[in-house]
Amino acid sequence: MKVLLKEDVENLGLAGEVYDVANGYGRNYLIPQGYAVKASPGVMNQAEIWRNKAEARRAEIRAEYEALAAKIGEVTLNYTARASETGKLFGSVTTAQIADDLNKELSTEIDRRKVGVEPLRQLGEHKVVVRLNADIQPEITVIIESEEAPVEVVEEVVEEVDEFDDDNDEYYYDDEYEEYAE
């Protein structure tokens, strides 16, 4: 089935272009949702008008995304979490947490599925990608620190006691354990 897109459809194409799609996809999704119309000679005359409108809308959205990308690039989010001695977190900082905090800080509505790829599970500084669209993908800096305060090492001098007698080359055994000392 040939359809003329009225709007940009992700993973398919841009508005004003003709695409050959499966009959069910066109009849059950694209046409009822208002994303496309069945391609016919009369409708093809309107294609140029839709292309121009869509191009203007894409330029407007691109300008908004570029301004938002500049703001996102400056953001640094700080988290504290419990972690092991090796720096591995007990749990993780999820992309949903990052998206929520990013939305609060910038007063925007960025979908959590567009932030990052997987949860962060290590202490340190991480760069997380925010996919606004295919062309504009700014990175935010996420810093994860340990909840515990840095542990101060206190040096203790321990007097070593040697129970091994170098002259005898034998260990000292209690009488109680004599039967095992052969």
Structural summary, described in words:
Among the domains are: 2-45, Ribosomal protein L9, N-terminal domain (Ribosomal Protein L9, domain 1, 3-Layer(aba) Sandwich); 70-146, Ribosomal protein L9, C-terminal domain (Ribosomal Protein L9, domain 2). The chain contains 4 helices and 10 strands. The chain has helices spanning 23-33, 41-44, 47-73, 95-106, and strands at residues 2-5, 18-20, 36-38, 76-81, 88-93, 120-122, 124-129, 139-146, 164-165, 170-171. The strands form 4 sheets. Strands 2-1-3 form a 3-stranded antiparallel beta sheet, with helices on one face. Strands 4-8-7 form a 3-stranded mixed beta sheet. The chain has a two-stranded antiparallel ribbon with strand order 5-6. A hairpin with a 4-residue loop joins strand 9 and strand 10 (170-171). The relative contact order is 0.12.
Q: What characteristic shape results from the CA principal axes?
A: elongated
> What's the CATH H-level superfamily name of the domain at 70-146?
Ribosomal protein L9, C-terminal domain
> If you average the pLDDT, what whole number results?
82
Helix percent reads 25-40%
Taken as a percent bin, the fraction of beta residues is 15-25%
In the CATH hierarchy, the third-tier topology of the domain at 70-146 is known as Ribosomal Protein L9, domain 2
Class based on secondary structure composition and strand pairing:
alpha+beta
In CATH, the architecture of the domain at 70-146 is Roll
Question: Tell me, what is the CATH class of the domain at 70-146?
Answer: Alpha Beta
Strand/helix succession = EEHEHHEEHEEEEE
* Strand adjacency order, main sheet: 2-1-3
**Count, helices:** 4
The protein's oligomeric status is single chain
Radius of gyration (CA) equals: 32 Å
Q: What is the β-strand count?
A: 10
